[in-house]
Amino acid sequence: MNSEVIRNFCVIAHIDHGKSTLADRFLEITGAVDRRKFCDQMLDSMELERERGITIKAKAVRLNFPYEGKSYILNLIDTPGHVDFTYEVAKSLKACEGAILLIDASQGVEAQTVANFYLALENNLKIIPAINKIDLPNADTERTLGQLSDIFGFKRSEVSLVSAKEGVGVEDMLKRVTREIPAPQGAIEKPLKAVLFDSTFDPYKGVILFLRVFDGKITVGDTILFMHQNKTYRVEEAGIFLPHIQKTDTLFCGEVGYICCNIKNPEEVDMGDTITSPSQPTLTPFEGYKKIPPMVFCGIFPSSPKDYPPLRGAIEKLRLSDPSFIYEPDHLGSYGYGFRCGFLGLLHMEIVQERLQREYGLDLVLTSPNVMYQVKKKDGELMHIESPHQLPDPTAIEQVYEPYVAASIVTPLDGMEPICDIAKSRRGQFKKTDYLGKDRLSVIFELPLAEIVVDFYDKLKSLTKGYASLDYEFIGYRPTEIVKVDILFNHKKAEAFSLLVHKEKAEPKARAVATKLKSLIPRQMFEVVIQASIGSRIIASERVPPLRKNVTAKCYGGDITRKRKLWEKQKKGKKKMKQLGNIIVPQEAFLEVLKM
Prior knowledge:
single chain; 596 residues; alpha+beta; Rossmann fold; Alpha-Beta Plaits; 8-stranded antiparallel sheet; 6-stranded mixed sheet; globular
């Protein structure tokens, strides 16, 4: 195959700027999908993606586009836009030579637009800027053109104007891709060199590997070597995405496709690995992907102990398609065996939980989310703490360190004051302001990660009528004062509700959790006392009254002592029940406390 006609590119943008809609128009124009089978967000094949209207997994598809007497092969990779899925974008860029940077005409340049631009620049990609949604009544194309010029230095003549929904200017975009994005530079006579950029699991074929071939070729029946893992496999099947899978005998240099090697264990695959020939290996393997450390941790436990083996299998398979999600076995008192899991953010955590429940039919219990703290003990040992029950005794701790991030918030001018107020209330330190055109600015704060993982983004959106956007990067650990807040039900600790909180915010947080639990726990046959404590000191308390049967209903007339005897007997029964009874805590209580 002639690599001169191949173009590998991706679409990058802030969340909801129209990447998947643009990909739909590309599929329509090139006739990649039969019109009868076509549907909106064609590449968002996951049910969860369609429901939420977001892209979670990057998708690859091959398009055939005739232009100036040649038939070009365009390999498009559609990427997510949310900050929690940056890893998916970083993986996709490794397989491309160019990127379309898409900006919403009504929203303008936002935080992830800037982050993705620099990500593409680091990978030496040819960037084609495009302004989308020019058909909207509130589209401000002139302002957005000004921002692209001021922030990134693009000339106005370099920017394409498109409406992905209406199909305006989309065919011209494809022509620009064929003209401006360079052809792959590999040579077929060189030793095989391919990068593994994604994978999925099939119960019949095992692990399906998505790869981009840089040099040489892969043919069915070849033996290949995974250089990082130092393992060899035989290629059983190869193919391309149209977007349905189509088998081929050979993948040539410059092509994007998949192979199956009968790998049954997902643990054997390392994302970003270099694939080569064992008899004639390449001399310059890829470094592999830069690992992004997880930001948020929580425990995932099966609601029934018999579901532990299915949960372990489901987590292993999910980890295969999402390497930014990490896990390790864990054990927690009354919840038995489960897993301690790490995520890039709270949305990432929600998506993983929903995928486990939907795709694998599991009933789960999640503990409160925490960030990873570092604890320096008095004996000099440095510990990494991911959950409250790992925190050592306060008398053994010399210093606790918490993770900090540099948060870049892009906002209209009138949103500056409320954003500064909320950032300062979350222990944020103001660093600098940059003007993005005449009416937008980027404010940079250094904030503790624990203060922003839960509801910070939602609050930003509501304070700025939906116009603010957030991007953050980890900048290191700093000293802090952290305490462990325990939640007790009838004087018994419920480890799943334990929290690690900054000392200043411990009491209000504890009161809020106790009040919330009071409203969520149903009344039982005995009294439920909900308490929050730091060590042995109770800092908040609530009571769920018992359900009471009217034992004196049939007690007519006579002395009051008859009634008192019955009430006393009932009281003793309730007391005994309180000692022995199991408190029923509904799943919603766990989820609601998570959201707090």
